[in-house]
């Protein structure tokens, strides 16, 4: 294990950033310089521009906090959990304990949903996010569509609380409602857009996940059943009563699950099923245009 650097109050900010980046790189934490910047920003309260232009200033009282952050990162705690925030689709969101840390890969789900809503010319869409987690997807959609109203559902009380915090943080609380429930069981009415990033890891794969995921993300947000497809089987049946005519469904999937999820939906009578790839060229979203 890489040794945690010792930071002193009389060390210049620029030197502290270089030493922290070197330690992170040696531990395989990449992009090391970017992670070092984020941790230094959080420890000092300074922004990226201030760190660049005031690099000769001393760490001062932030040295102890930076050392704490460095130790946590070098033992495998994700940066977003250390600093308590994550940037998702241009929004600065709170990352709460026991709630899934939003991933950049999920932004393709938001992009796909917005594209399909625009293609269909929908106005004032009603949006449903099943397994809302931190509220990242719901906040991104509502922020991008000021005419929309959204409902987020999650079984986890921590996730429901995190979504409410993030809706308020983004100025979206008046257009978003959070319900604690088991998927769609408590819902009635119909929606123009239904989205979900459900748990899709199989039981057998859980133990082999990267430690940063396995040790810090909640099992409830990861475990998709024996084969990772349990939520999609439920969706194939339940979403029909919740989707308006001409509505859209967008579901995140594991990168090997595209064909299987598409087949599940087609077998249940859904048409207009397609698969979208993420920026790495991997299957990431199943879209359904009714």
Automatic annotation (TrEMBL):
CDD domains: AdoMet_MTases (cd02440). It catalyses: L-glutaminyl-[peptide chain release factor] + S-adenosyl-L-methionine = N(5)-methyl-L-glutaminyl-[peptide chain release factor] + S-adenosyl-L-homocysteine + H(+). Keywords: Methyltransferase, S-adenosyl-L-methionine, Transferase. It is an enzyme of class 2 (transferase). One of its GO terms (molecular function) is nucleic acid binding. SUPFAM superfamilies: S-adenosyl-L-methionine-dependent methyltransferases. This is Release factor glutamine methyltransferase. It comes from Rhodoblastus sphagnicola.
